[in-house]
């Protein structure tokens, strides 16, 4: 039996002496030695907090009959209330080539998930969860599926858990009944004892109390004090960092803004002052306020005795909801009832409409009454008169009697978008992480309504050895080049269909064109889209003399959106970029403006599971648009992929790819597939929060 070189009994005695002086609370949800929240080797029924991203590193894993000296990396997130998911890398070496060196040891990439059973806790007071690790891997070294229940006794700082697992882990770990207890005698300490279905283990955990570190970050460390496993090569230990993703909080993104006490009085005074000053404002002051905040293509007019303000947001690039919220806040605080009544010829609760434009094409209409929206800003109580529509926007715009046209016109106002760019492979036989990384600079210039010029340059910065000259992925390393030159032309068709034609040069050598077309149902819960393209390589052969075939895509996509769940499900199929045919299914979970997604791909009878995260890499409020606006990217994506249901785990060589553009319909016009009435209606509080956040920044 393993004998620790320090007295864990003394540690426990010291904590017991401190216990009577401690005010207990519910034990924190901390990482385990495996790919789930839990005790040591076993899970509890808790999950990562929604919106938190976990990065864990530990040493030691059950492998080939012992607790082996292996490095264990886990990246996970709370993707929904009651659901966590993540990816795990277990490795002996980091850059050893398995094909040439027989001493590289294991290198394994796998996925995991855990989900709490809905409503079970409400009826029983006991939390119940099911989960699995090493899901669907071609070669499973840490495969385990389990069901677990736990009960928390907050008055004593205790949580008891018990469960049953079926696993292929060495030493019989989690292969049968297991259970344990977590005790948190101090706000920064836990003691954990568990039976892992084979032996007993004791672990100590220390962590920073919630709120101790800035931005909601929490760190923890854990070390094994005792184990009953005789064949243990080392003492298990690990560290973990939990980070709220982009400051996400389920209590702040789309709930009534709660101000800190020190800020509350100042911000409320500013808001009250802005609302009071609206009584003496005019249409001119409103137009100036919108222009000063950076909105472009501003128009004001009337339609059926209602005010219409058309404008385009190029500053709030995380989410169009923020741009609309700021615009409505400025309208509500820079327009008096008298001015509005004079304009529309009626004093009976006159309606204001914001017609949102993208590249001067109408994409959404928001309607409300001035008094109601002013009350909403002041109190946070939802305005029942606020509504959203994406129907018949071309006709609505044509029927509006415009008083002022094109203030701060957007034609020629270029955006220079900087973003990291990276080709990479994770946990392959060649290394844990191989990469070619660079910086992309994308110049995008609107030409006329719906048209734009798009050019991107890539500057290589660094390559790992396997992407360098002579490396296995040399042909995938980034080149110093202009790799995209396109002209785009988008239209909004009469039956509320968006379409965009793009022609030019992409991927550093292909000439041709493509079309994207998308239709959404009136509320936006259902969407259908198509991508059709034809491209020919600029030469008959590449730099190595290899024949280059023409490329084409023929893809159809259906998306179901459930904004109140922050969830989308997409089904896509057809012919992909490399000529392979198949289908993929993607489930997407939004956490604020970051999204986690899992994709199943079946192409040419090969199957893959991909986990990814996509998030904006630019400030919440970008540089004010001038004739050159410099900003970051609205969507940067990182993914890991593993082959499933096969006897080998070879890297995907290009199956399932489509053409992904910065200036696609989805991203340039449709708010990353969130520009729908249903989404806006669900996120009304966020609109108010955006305006209050603007006031806070200006204080």
Keywords summarizing the entry:
699 residues, alpha+beta, 13-stranded mixed β-barrel, twelve-stranded antiparallel beta barrel, 11 helices, 31 strands, disordered N terminus
Summarize the structure.
This protein has eleven helices and 31 strands. With 699 residues, the protein is α+β, with helices and mostly antiparallel strands. Helix 5 (320-333) packs across helix 7 and helix 5 (320-333) crosses helix 11.
Report strand %.
over 45%
Range of helix content: 10-25%
What class, by secondary structure content? alpha+beta
First-last Cα distance: 63 Å
Shape: globular
Q: Spans with pLDDT under 50 lasting ≥5 residues?
A: 1-8, 10-21
**If strands are numbered along the chain, what order do they take across the biggest sheet?**
19-20-21-22-23-24-25-26-27-28-29-30-31
Mean pLDDT: 89
Oligomer: single chain
Largest sheet: 13 strands, mixed, barrel
SS element count, helices: 11
């Amino acid at each position: 039996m393993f004998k620790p070189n320090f007295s864990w009994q003394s540690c426990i005695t010291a904590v017991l002496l401190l216990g009577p002086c401690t005010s207990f609370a519910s034990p924190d949800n901390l990482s385990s030695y495996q790919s789930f929240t839990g005790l040591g080797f076993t899970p509890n029924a808790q999950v990562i907090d929604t919106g938190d991203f976990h990065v864990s590193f530990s040493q030691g894993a059950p492998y080939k009959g012992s607790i082996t000296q292996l490095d264990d990396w886990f990246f996970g997130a709370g993707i929904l209330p009651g659901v966590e998911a993540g990816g795990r890398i277990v490795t002996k070496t980091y850059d050893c080539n398995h094909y040439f060196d027989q001493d590289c040891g294991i290198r394994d990439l796998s996925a995991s998930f855990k989900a709490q059973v809905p409503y079970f806790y409400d009826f029983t007071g006991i939390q119940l969860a099911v989960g699995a690790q090493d899901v669907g891997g071609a070669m499973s070294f840490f495969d385990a599926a389990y069901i677990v229940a736990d009960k928390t006794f907050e008055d004593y700082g205790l949580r008891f858990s018990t469960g049953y697992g079926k696993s292929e882990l060495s030493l019989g770990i989690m292969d049968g009944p297991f259970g344990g207890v977590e005790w948190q005698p101090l706000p920064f300490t836990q003691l954990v004892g568990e039976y892992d279905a084979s032996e007993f283990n004791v672990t100590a955990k220390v962590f920073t109390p919630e709120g101790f570190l800035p931005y909601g970050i929490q760190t923890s460390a854990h070390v094994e004090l005792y184990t009953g496993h005789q064949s243990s090569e080392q003492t298990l230990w690990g560290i973990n960092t939990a980070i709220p993703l982009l400051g996400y909080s389920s209590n702040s993104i789309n709930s009534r803004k709660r101000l800190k006490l020190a800020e509350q009085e100042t911000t409320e005074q500013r808001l009250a002052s802005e609302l009071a000053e609206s009584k003496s404002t005019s249409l001119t002051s409103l137009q100036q306020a919108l222009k000063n905040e950076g909105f472009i293509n501003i128009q004001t007019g009337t339609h059926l005795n209602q005010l219409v303000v058309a404008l385009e947001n190029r500053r709030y690039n995380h989410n169009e909801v923020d741009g609309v919220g700021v615009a409505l806040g400025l309208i509500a605080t820079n327009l008096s009832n008298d001015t509005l009544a004079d304009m529309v010829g009626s004093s009976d609760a006159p309606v204001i409409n914001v017609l949102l434009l993208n590249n001067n094409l109408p994409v959404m209409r928001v309607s409300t009454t001035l008094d109601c929206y002013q009350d909403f800003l002041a109190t946070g109580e939802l305005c029942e008169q606020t509504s959203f529509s994406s129907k018949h926007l071309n006709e609505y715009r044509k029927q509006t009697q415009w008083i002022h046209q094109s203030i701060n016109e957007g034609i020629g106002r270029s955006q220079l978008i900087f973003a990291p760019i990276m080709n990479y492979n994770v946990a392959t036989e060649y290394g844990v992480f191989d990469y070619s990384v660079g910086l992309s600079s994308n110049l995008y210039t609107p030409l006329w309504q719906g048209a734009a010029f798009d050019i991107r340059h890539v500057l290589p910065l660094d390559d790992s050895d396997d992407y360098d000259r002579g490396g296995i992925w040399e042909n995938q390393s980034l080149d110093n080049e202009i790799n995209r030159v396109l002209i785009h032309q988008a239209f909004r068709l009469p039956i509320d269909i968006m379409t965009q034609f793009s022609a030019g040069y992409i991927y550093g050598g292909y000439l041709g064109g493509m079309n994207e077309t998308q239709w959404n149902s009136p509320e936006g819960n259902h969407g259908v889209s198509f991508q059709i393209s034809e491209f020919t390589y600029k030469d008959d052969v590449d730099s190595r003399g290899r024949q280059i075939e023409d490329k084409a895509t023929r893809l159809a996509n259906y998306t179901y959106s459930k904004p109140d769940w922050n969830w989308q499900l997409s089904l896509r199929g057809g012919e992909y970029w490399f000529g392979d045919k198949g289908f993929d299914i993607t489930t997407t979970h939004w956490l604020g403006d970051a999204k986690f997604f899992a994709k199943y791909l079946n192409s040419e009878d090969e199957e893959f599971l991909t986990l990814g995260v996509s998030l904006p890499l630019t400030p919440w409020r970008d540089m004010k648009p001038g004739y050159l606006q410099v900003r970051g990217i609205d969507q940067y994506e990182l993914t890991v992929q593993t082959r499933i249901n096969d006897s080998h785990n070879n890297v995907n060589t290009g199956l399932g790819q489509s053409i992904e553009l910065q200036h696609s319909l989805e991203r340039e016009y449709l708010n990353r597939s969130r520009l729908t009435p249903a989404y806006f209606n669900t996120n009304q509080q966020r609109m108010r929060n955006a305006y209050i956040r603007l006031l806070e920044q200006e204080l």
